[in-house]
Amino acid sequence: MKRRDRGQIIFPDSTNYYATPELAAAYDEDSAGRRDLSFYVGLARELGASRVADIGAGTGLLCSLLAGEGYDVFGVEPEPTMLSLAASQKNAASVSWLHGTAEKLPTHCADLVLMTGHVAQYFLDDVSWAEVVAHAQRALTPGGRVAFEIRNPAVEAWREWETGASRVTSRGHVRTEATREGDLVTHIDHWTQGSREWTTTETLRFPSWRDVMRGLEAAGLSLERTWGDWDRSPVNDTSPEWIFLARSRDIDRARSTTRESVKIEPKTSTALHQAVSHALHRDVTALSDVRREPLEYDAFLAHRAVSRLRGLATVDGEHIPWSLIEKRTEGPALASPYLRGNGEREYDAYVSGMLDDIAPRLRAPHAHGTLVEPDGGITLWLEEIHHQGQRPLDARSIVAAAHDVGGLGGRWAGRERGEPWFFTEWIDRHGQPEAVEQGLATVRRAHPHALARLGDRLPRIEQLILAQPRVRDVLESLPHTLCHHDAVGANVFSTATGTVLVDWESIGPGPVGADLASLLFSSVRRGDASANVVVPLVDEALHGYIQGLRAEGARIEPADVRRGFDAAVALRWKLAVDVVTGLESGEAPRRGSQPNEPASEAERELIQLIDLLLASAGRVLD
User: Fold this and answer.
1) What's the distance, Cα to Cα, between the start and end of the chain in Å?
2) What is the share, in percent, of the chain residues with pLDDT greater than 90?
3) Which residues fall within 8 angstroms of residue 430, CB to CB, at 6 or more apart?
4) Dist CA 90 CA 186 (whole Å)
């Protein structure tokens, strides 16, 4: 040991918490009450796992618990001090301990690989994250799963660490300082025990959801479930955790390579048989070579899947090819209430018959069959639609869709139809009142990076957030009609006969012009369209919407349409706060449909959108 002034002792490798014997030995005691341990043991039991691997096993507490339950366990840990403590755990003799990193795991050694204790946050860039999940996937048996958690960056947990005052632990007092640079947070802990003092330093990454998903997707892992806390609550903006369960796509890849048929359960087979008959307008005697091809879908929807089904139908001895889009929502045992509500509303919309003739030049994909299973799972077999235009949407497709959405508004304006399954919470979903307090705090911090890029927009954003009750009042005062509240570009398909909109779980009442805000504003936010295209044609799109209204005989004042559009845009204040948060961290928010977009381009697009937001708010509130 080296001594310093005032009797301060510097331990060997003292900057590493886990290499400091006194601290490593106290890790389990200081972490008492960890809720993740019972969660992961329960998850292994629920999944029917038999072999489990723990990356970053630490003191081996979880490995010991799993071994005590009869699992075959591999524990890999790079820090010798921690590994020596793991060897003294109860049941340690039943664990295969490995000194090193995830690359030391044998291939196909486990059907569940875990990273617990926020180990996933120790990989400080995209490259190291991609490497560890690739090794995790390699260690899985076909169809095996990976589970891990990351602290939700939006909650900013590091602010709780930096209290300014010291706290008492089993090994003395500690005072913490935390600094943030981009998505990296470094905390420096100053320890005192009697006359001894030492310092440890640790850096963690708080990656975006998209950064996490890119690593999983590159490794061949598909997201299966997510939770927002150890009580299994769903993920939302204020969830303390992002808990991920992903599954190896090895089985799917083998099927797509060898073109094997998927197994269809008997009850599903009967309903699918009827759906194919309906789609072909023929009496089908048999289905064969049925294949399922996964389609990209929103990563948050872990229990809602969209696939393409293909196969051959036997009709009068002839084999006829067919394809359908299969949209499935799991039952309430798996799907969150949010997803379950979406699936039920879309099912109800189709079986009600309302979507059969919703508007003159706007329609939904034809539903050729539906199935509600005993566990509550809902399946829709829908017509496959092909977009006849560019993606991201070009100006022609946007203006045509605006006209056709106006036709929807015109047909239903003033008609009283209050279906119990209508989506009526759209103002709260877009306005996010639960996030107002945190949003104000973010804007009022006036971070130098945000000031440099947004300037005098910041006080205007604050005023918009404070004025949200007035925005709501405006929206509720306008003439109402029937709206598709998720008419974003990804859901728009241009065809020779008009516009087809998909995802009808958000159909419900709303003011005229409200769904035009989804088409224009939200499409740019998601990356389904470019601000360079949308912003210059707002007036043209409004004109097209008004023409669509009038073609159906609706007597709505153009000023009311403009006011409905502007107020529905002003409702989406959260975009501005997301951009401010991104500027603070050194990286603008990603746009979901453009995962490979350069950060500088995303920033330019979103700042243009903030200008549209503030201009709309100004017209509504002045």
Assistant:
1) 69
2) 60
3) 485, 568, 571, 572
4) 33
- Dihedral angle computed from the Cα positions of residues 471, 477, 480 and 484, in that order, rounded to the nearest 10 degrees: 10
Confidence grade of residue 591 (pLDDT, cut at 50, 70, 90): confident
Q: Is the pLDDT of residue 589 over 80?
A: no
At 460 the pLDDT is: 98
Structural domain range at position 563:
395-621
Nearest by Cα to 102 from 137, 59, 61, 64: 137
CATH number at residue 488: 3.90.1200
Convert the pLDDT of each residue in 440-471 to its tens digit.
999 999 999 999 999 999 999 999 999 999 99
Residue labelled with tokens 């004109």: 543
Query: Is 181 a member of any domain?
Result: no
H/E stretch holding 285 reads: none
CA distance linking residue 446 with residue 457, whole number of Å: 11
| 278 and 378 part of one domain | yes
Structural contact between residues 489 and 528, judged by C-beta atoms closer than 8 angstroms: yes
Please say if the pLDDT value at position 22 is more than 80. Answer: no
Contact 95, 74 (CB under 8 A): yes
Compute the distance between CA of residue 360 and CA of residue 408 in angstroms, rounded to an integer. Answer: 8
Q: What is d(CA 273, CA 261) in angstroms, rounded to the nearest whole number?
A: 15
Half-sphere exposure of 99 (CA within 13 A, CB side): 8
Is 260 a residue whose pLDDT tops 60?
no
Distance of CA 42 to the CA centre of its chain: 24
Q: For residues 259-269, b (16+ Cβ closer than 10 Å) or e, as one string? A: eeeeebeeebe
For the chain, what is the radius of gyration of the CA atoms?
28
**Are residues 223 and 369 both part of a single domain?**
no
Q: How far is CA 554 from CA 28, 84, 515, in A?
A: 69, 77, 16
- Report the range of poorest mean pLDDT among 110-124, 200-214, 239-253, 554-568: 239-253
- End-of-domain residue from the set 357, 382, 407: 382
Residue from 17, 223, 208 nearest 121 by CA: 208
